[in-house]
Amino acid sequence: MKNIEYNRTDAVNYAKKWALSRNPNYYNFQNLGGDCTNFVSQSIYAGAKVMNLSHNRGWYYYSASNRSASWTSVEYLYEFLVNNQTAGPYAQIVPEQEIEPGDVVQLADSSGDFYHSLVITQTKPLILVCAHTYDALDRPLISYTYHTARFLHIEGVRKW
Length: 160
Known about the structure:
Layout: E1 2-4, H1 8-18, H2 36-48, E2 61-63, E3 66-67, H3 69-72, H4 74-83, E4 88-94, E5 104-108, E6 114-122, E7 128-131, E8 136-140, E9 148-159
Antiparallel strand pairs: 1-9, 2-3, 4-9, 5-6, 5-9, 6-7, 7-8
């Protein structure tokens, strides 16, 4: 297995291009619980260019009916990124000060349930994000109402 660099510029450019519209190559999950993590996965894939095809624990998308749970679920994406030891992107939770453009932030309510995934497009002077479900292009993170945020720093990508 070979480590390759995560292309943050490609991830951010993808997020900005598709923040206010939908890429026709991907199903829009807006009316099936939300499209936020699907959009974040698309952005990560633009920067990683490697999927993990493992049936039970992977991260992949071929169609709305042939995809991993981690592609479209907030919690499953988190679990995949922080636990991935094989192909695809991998991440760790970091403090807000250590994030970079192309990383991911996930928001939780007061009960601790994480419900929204966003792509970080800028870190200074303000953290800006792009998102789907509640479509946003370079929206300040501070404008969201949430109880807790977890920041996932994508460290790299593994490929065979």
